[in-house]
Amino acid sequence: MTNDWIAHPIASAVLPTDTRPVTVIRSPSSARLSTIKRLIELAHYRDLLYTLTVHRIKVRYKQSILGMSWAIIQPVSMTIAFTAVFSLIARMPSGGRPYAVFAYVALLPWNFFSSSVTNATGGIVSHSQLITKVYFPREILPITYVLAALVDFLIASSVLAALMVFYRIPLNAQIVWVLPIILVLTAFSLSIALLFSATQVRVRDIGMAMPLLLQLWMLATPIVYPLSAVPERLRYVYMLNPLVAIVENFRRVILYASTPDFASLGTSALISVILLFASYFYFKRVEVTMADII
Amino acid sequence: MIDLEFDRVSKKYLIQQELNGGGTRFPLRGRLRKLTGNYGDFWALKDVSFQVTRGETLGIIGPNGAGKSTILKLLSKITAPTSGEITINGRLSALIEVGSGFHPELTGRENIYLSGSILGMGRREIAKKLDSIIEFAGVHQFVDTPVKRYSSGMYVRLGFSIAAHLQPDILLLDEVLAVGDVYFQAKCYDRIMNLKDGGTTIVFISHDLNAVEFLCDRALLLDYGAVAGEGLPSDIISQYRLAANGAAAPGPLEDRSDGAPKPIQITRLTFHDCEEREVLQAVTGQPLIARVEFTASQPLRGLDFQIFYYSHDAKLHCQFSTSLGCEPTDIDRGEGTVQFWCAELGLQPGIYYADATIKRRADGKEIDWQYRSAILRVEPGKRVSGNFYAPHQWRITQPKEAAAGAILYERECEGQLTTDAIHICHEDSTRGKGTIGLE
User: Fold this and answer.
1) Which helix (H) or strand (E) covers residue A24, if one does?
2) Which DSSP helix (H) or strand (E) runs through A113?
3) What confidence score (pLDDT) does residue B31 get?
4) Contact list, B73 vs chain A (CB under 8 Å)
5) Which residues from chain B sit within 8 angstroms of residue A202, using beta carbons?
6) Scanning every residue of chain B, which has its alpha carbon at the shortest distance from the alpha carbon of A12?
7) H or E segment at A26?
8) Of B374, B120, B45, whose CA–CA distance to A130 is shortest?
9) What is the pLDDT of residues B337-348, one digit of tens each?
10) B123 in contact with A, Cβ within 8 Å
11) Measured between beta carbons, which residues in chain B are less than 8 angstroms from residue A204?
12) Distance between CA atoms of residues B176 and B195, nearest Å
């Protein structure tokens, strides 16, 4: 070994007094930080958020031959299987559109939700090494999983475009409604990701229950069947699941080129926003002791 | 200017108590109860207050479980205090265990961005320092290789290099100095001294007392979550060492021999400097006097007195003895003192425990053996490498070209390592010879 690197000097600079930030740390009960202050703090860490998200995406497909195409293979295979089972065998109605595209368009938002929640739930516990050593706003971890899932969602969307061209399904201006729907979907996914990841730190049962929960949740969402197949008298209960309105409206504006159902979409948006605030508040309360109980 | 202040800070941890019985019949109920209550309280810190002024280096020492790591965690906002208030004036960074935050699948370059942003650097800042970080770590060739292919040395160097490029106003140092090879440690010290000189306030939490003494301006001793002492590092380290051994001072001696009444007994072992003042500390290469006081209940013949010096790992380092090349001593009834003079102490800096013994030379049996009678702290004096300082003298001889021809220079030093005492006396240079000698 040479000694070259020992002699290497690093420039250092200590801030003058007037520009120094002053931090006061108090007990969590006497120092309730406002949500706005917390969001400002989060904004300070946007570089970490960006870097972690990019690496999340890179790492997932490292040392795999098919790489990023896994983001497409997964929903495509599911669509093929669903089409085989529900179209060839069970003859499920698909609202006048080919079943493959009918299922695929619903699987896109569902997979986004399902992978962000699954990955985020274990996300904090799997970073316990970091949590007990460095401070950063912990919500960054679940957020990066949601953002990484969003990227997969966009990649998988290219197949949808191809299917639409193949089946000659026309598009019109209603397609712009896709953006607010994705926004609501992201808000809802994030709120569940925050809620579950924070709970998983205390009780690991959440992680155990996750596959079962997601399977049931998927059946309770109009993915393999249309909303119209749900009996009218059960609709009110059924619609309590915010994903119903999200998935159904997503399908509606893309496949049927019609306006979204504003009543159901608005309700989902309201539920998502309220849940997001509640989950964030809960997450921040758990965050204080996260390093102690992880 | 106070950069960092702890104001009556306490931290309580909840310890889960395992419930005895009942757990098998209603496992869920037991678990739920465990989650909702039935915790034991543990105060990791209780009413701890201290301040660190700008540019100061504070060392925090104490036994395991004294609350050192809790202070570190509170300062770096990893966990929150239960009560009290911490004020931090400036940007604070912790030089934590290097390499945490590395992802094995990512390349060195990608990990610099990842780890750097976890430590609080912006992307632009990292981009600016990237070359310097790579050069400092000496991983130039491998910067685009996944770090899982790195040797552990490269891994550690890269991790430290990133952390070393932080520019905090206040730096938290954990045991990071304890890892890595000698080059790496030298690098660590170098960077820390560099930051210290640049005016960075440093809090250093360590079990390495020599490092604390070397780096810190002031030290804080923690015990059971409370401040047990605060002051000069050397004083606090002595206090910690003495407390750790349960001996407040070289006072009442612990008896290691059998219980029978002894004809002669050691009552005290003390150390003195050359002005006969009692001391707890000595300096490498400086004189030391050790004094053994005894009481004899009857006259005794053929005795040897000895002092043994052990380091904390119970290794025997040296010995003072009356037996070396001398006839054994005879003792009358009554009190007496044996005094050992050491002109130049050979022990290297550190903490030593001394045993005092009285032995009968005829059968080699110990009449009295006082185990761990005293603690001697040896401070750095003459800085030499190796296990001990050996008193020595030196002389240089070298033929040297001069205007008038070859002159033989001779320098020597006796007793002193300093060259101040050397006087130069030239003989007539026309005769082609000269000497430089000691006067």
Assistant:
1) strand A22-26
2) helix A99-123
3) 58
4) 132, 291
5) 35
6) B167
7) strand A22-26
8) B120
9) 999 998 889 888
10) yes
11) none
12) 16
What is the CA angle B110-B112-B114, rounded to 5? 70
- Report, as an integer, the average pLDDT of A193-213: 92
* C-beta of residue B213 within 8 angstroms of C-beta of residue B338: no
pLDDT of residue B434: 39
DSSP state of A292: H
Neighbours of B360 (CB within 10 A): 16
pTM of the model: 0.70
3-state secondary structure of A82: helix
Q: Establish if B312 touches chain A: CB-CB under 8 angstroms.
A: no
Chain A residue at shortest CA distance from B32: A203
Q: Per the CB < 8 Å rule, is B110 touching A292?
A: no
- Is residue B287 within 8 Å of residue B273, measured between CB atoms? yes
A51 contact residues in B (CB cutoff 8 A) = 113-114, 117, 123
Summarize pLDDT for A221-258 with one digit per residue, the tens.
999 999 989 999 998 899 999 999 999 999 999 999 88
Per-residue pLDDT of A135-192, as tens digits, reads 889 999 999 999 999 999 999 999 999 999 999 988 888 899 999 999 999 999 999 9
* CA-CA-CA-CA torsion sign (B226, B231, B232, B236): negative
Contact status, residue A255 vs residue A96, Cβ threshold 8 Å = no
A63 inside 8 A of chain B by CB: yes
CB-CB under 8 Å, A289 with B114: no
pLDDT grade for A290, boundaries at 50, 70 and 90: confident
CB pairs under 8 A between A and B: 147
Which chain A positions have a beta carbon within 8 Å of B182's beta carbon? none
Residue B190 burial (CB < 10 Å; 0-12/13-18/19+)?
Answer: middle
Give me the residues of B, 65-94, that contact A with CB < 8 A: 73-74, 76-92, 94
Identify from A33, A134, A140, A203 which residue to disrupt to test chain B contact, counting B C-beta atoms within 10 A and taking the largest count. Answer: A134
Chain B nearest CA to A147, separation (Å):
17
* Tens digit of each residue's pLDDT (9 = 90 or more) over A46-93: 988 998 898 888 887 777 778 778 888 888 999 999 999 988 888 888
* Model ipTM over 0.90: no
∠ CA A79-A144-A250, rounded to 5°:
40
d(CA A4, CA B135): 9
Q: Which residues on chain A are in Cβ contact (under 8 Å) with B85?
A: 24-26
Is the CB of A24 less than 8 angstroms away from the CB of B187? no
Strand-pair partners of B316: B310
Coil, strand or helix at A90: coil
Residues 160-199 (B) with a CB less than 8 A from some CB of A: 164-165, 167, 169, 181, 183, 186-187, 190-191, 194-195, 198-199
Q: Does pLDDT of B102 surpass 90?
A: no
- Partner B, chain A 231-290, Cβ-Cβ below 8 Å: 288-289
Query: What percentage of chain B has pLDDT greater than the value 70?
Result: 77
Question: Which residues of chain A neighbour B154 with C-beta distances below 8 Å?
Answer: none
pLDDT digits (tens, 9 = 90+) for B288-306: 999 999 988 888 888 889 8
